[in-house]
């Protein structure tokens, strides 16, 4: 593949056929050289060694009674013991040895929150956890009732954005001065000025608008500041440069691509089941894919509990 010009990769088959209903939030766990992810619909946290060779022989599954939507490490805590989860009602700490969790903070306390569940999120450079909320599955098409909230170690919550339908991926540029946030329903990715000193955000602006039939979902940022963005419904991951120009693409065999995670120079890619696609998309929906893209990603931040 040439070093210049538009870059293209094609993945024919899954690395692991996990058959996730809604696989999301891949996270590289350095301490164990493993990848963990969530299956939101099956209410599971899954983990497996990066050395698995297609058979998922090391797969570990934690079954919960609530939907986990995203995971992050906790600063100073061994992730084999405890990690932070986004869950239906807010944020929780999962004890991975017992499979139990403790709810730390809620989106809010009204009974109306039964309509709402968490979605994607991430810890920021200050150790605060940003988490979006949206209409839960059984209440039909997502309505503009979600928020992008920021939780801190005092368990307090600040609603930064409101009236969202599908708040999704969130991440930071290599210098931590730009924060990116995806609103899937409107097919828009926004950029904010982020203060490395205070953690404040300002100057919200449209950074990328997707003009295809699919919707931008989760993403990760590489060491050069490029955003690798999963596109739901299009069998695609896009490589977008810091100016918002698409400079590469990965084509996959199933439609509902949800998120990505760097493991060295390999990009691990999650997906969801596809009941309405062609035979190949249905067969491989919910699988985990990987492809060497020749660059590395930024380390993800940890939550300060």
Automatic annotation (TrEMBL):
> This chain belongs to which protein, by name?
SMP-30/Gluconolactonase/LRE-like region domain-containing protein
The residue ranges of the SMP-30/Gluconolactonase/LRE-like region domain are 22-272
The record's SUPFAM superfamilies line, in alphabetical order, gives: Calcium-dependent phosphotriesterase
One GO molecular-function entry: gluconolactonase activity
Keywords assigned by UniProt?
Metal-binding, Zinc
Annotated active site: 217
Q: Which organism is it from?
A: Trichoderma arundinaceum
Q: Which family does it belong to?
A: Belongs to the SMP-30/CGR1 family.
Membrane-crossing ranges are none
Give cofactor(s), names only. Zn(2+)
**Highest taxon listed in the record's lineage:** Eukaryota
The chain's coiled-coil residues are: none
What InterPro entries would the database entry show? 6-blade_b-propeller_TolB-like (IPR011042), SGL (IPR013658), SMP-30 (IPR005511)
Keyword Cell membrane carried by entry: no
Q: Which Pfam families does the UniProt entry name for this protein?
A: SGL
Cofactor note (record): Binds 1 divalent metal cation per subunit.
What residues bind a divalent metal cation, as annotated? 24, 168, 217
Q: Which residues bind substrate?
A: 117, 119
